[in-house]
Amino acid sequence: MKRIYLDNNATTIVDPLVRQAMDPFFCERYGNPNSLHQFGTEVHPDLRVAMNRLYAGINAGDADDILLNGCATEGNNTVLKGVWFDHIRNGAKDHIITTSVEHPCVGNTARFLQTLGVKVTFLPVNRDARVEADAVRDAITSRTALVSVMWANNETGIVFPVKEIAEVCRQKGVLFHTDAVQAIGKVKVDVQEVPVDFLTFSAHKFHGPKGAGGLFIRKGLRLPPLLHGGEQMAGKRAGTLNVASVVGMGLAMELAVRNLPFEDAEVRRLRDRLEDALAKIPDTMVIGRRELRVPNTTFLSVRGVEGEALLWDLNKNGIAASTGSACASESLEASPIISAIGAGPELSHTGIRLSLSRFTTQDEVDTAVDVFAQAVGRLRAISSTY
Ligand code: C6P
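That is the input. Now the predicted structure with C6P docked in place:
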């Protein structure tokens, strides 16, 4: 049975060019970049190239910082806990605003900060599954230290109005962080056009390796380190750099940006083809307007079919999908997004996410449609609610 991977929002295949670029750093140029001998120093030019690619990829300025780290979870923790430490702990501010649909590495970090006395507003999404800038403006008070709103949602693919939100935060003198994990390589991410203060990304979401991420910090701002230790990254993030992964992440970023037109045309065409075909199955509902979504994601509700059951049936037949965030896959809670868009409780467990990449083919999409339709038929035949 041919396996078809439609879970690219969970992780992506490493681009073969990226893998090739990483290869020499395992057994040949394996020095620690902080060592003073040649094994250490010979990797410096490669790290510089990788950093330049990351800066160029998001259009960061020379005076901005990009901290290299292990993943977006680490980056998001660094921002929220760092803002608590530097701006909330001893000061006049005690309030953070975020949304009810952030990834758990933002949501649960915010909940942890609540235990330390921070007041957190979790803004709900509207019927478009978005949080609008006006809702952020209305929630900001003189005690707000940080707004954290994702660039694109991992479940629905909905793009949030981060430019407007960033501008509101600027006007109000509040720090703005965005989790851009699901935006890089899918839509243009430009930190000059969108005046964010902090932005996080993760290489494995754009055909780079797992275990490599980045945190953009606007010039003039600082965050205390999450990891204390050696003087790597000028003391801002201790720990030996994962050179192979940084090299891979740099190239993956360059390729992601170079492939944006392809993503916008071809990946979008395939996603729309998939979505149009699935929408013909009676009583299915696509969540979120297409024009508001990144080009690769479809989130569907299939009446009468538990998302989990569909996922297992698809898996048995070679199709990898997801009921939402991969890291919430063991939670049986209803999707907050399906509830937020006004669907009744009978639909709250019916969501299934399909996410494509530039490596997805039309054949795969067409096969997936057939397998999906058969799975829905089988499950509805035994459903007590359909
Ligand atoms: N979302 C999903 O299935 P890491 O793995 O730490 O690099 O990335 C975490 C993360 C942070 N923010 C967003 C918006 C994300 O989508 C993710 C990862 C995957 O949706 C796995 S849970």
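Residues 22 and 244 are 5 Å apart (CA to CA).
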